[in-house]
Design brief:
Number of helices: 1
Structural class: mainly beta
Helix content: under 10%
Shape: globular
Largest sheet: 5 strands, antiparallel
Number of strands: 15
Order of helices and strands: EHEEEEEEEEEEEEEE
């Protein structure tokens, strides 16, 4: 999850950054413990958010303002080790001079659904794209088309645990509403 400052803090001259946090598990009474920020290799003081974790413990996240970025927001991968996390910018073709601000990564890292802002082949605002992991290399992101994207903003992708549906937020009717579509309707090749 991401923790961001309150709206009051956002308007201050010295704004605190968003951070990636993990739940602290449950207490003996069954209540959730307080979230804990991940280490400094992930939370640098820039804005880090929209994390997605794989079955192997690899963490993907987006960051704005992080040193070494390609665009307004980039996607990073944090691989756990005995010494913490090794963090890397995914680089091209995932990251570009545009903003790659939100993502969902399949738990087995077969594919990712990412948000790209104002892409030349986009429908407007933020659009959802798919990229496929082929032997460790991510493919050029492919726009999911008008069945998902609109002239407004689409973001917040997530896929159900059974792999049947893609859920996302869209502003096509004004305020953000949650939509779902069967993955099979997108005709994506999800097999590596």
């Amino acid at each position: 999850t991401a923790a961001c400052p309150t709206r009051t803090a956002w308007s201050s001259l010295t704004r605190a950054a968003c951070t990636v946090q993990r739940t602290g598990g449950r207490s003996s009474s069954g209540d959730w413990n307080e979230p804990e920020p991940l280490p400094a290799s992930i939370n640098t003081g820039a804005d880090e958010w929209h994390a997605s974790t794989t079955n192997s413990g690899v963490l993907y996240f987006s960051s704005r303002g992080r040193s070494g970025g390609h665009g307004r927001s980039d996607i990073y991968r944090a691989v756990p080790s005995e010494k913490g996390y090794t963090v890397e910018n995914l680089g091209a073709p995932i990251n570009s001079e545009l903003s790659q601000s939100d993502l969902y990564v399949d738990p087995d890292e077969r594919f990712m659904i990412l948000v790209i802002t104002d892409h030349p082949d986009g429908y407007g605002g933020d659009d959802l794209y798919a990229s496929f992991n082929r032997n460790g290399d991510w493919s050029e992101p492919r726009n999911l088309g008008p069945v998902v994207n609109s002239p407004e903003y689409e973001y917040g992708p997530t896929i159900t645990a059974d792999g049947d549906y893609l859920y996302f937020t869209s502003h096509r009717r004004g305020m953000g509403d949650i939509y779902r579509i069967r993955l099979s309707a997108l005709e994506l090749d999800l097999v590596p």
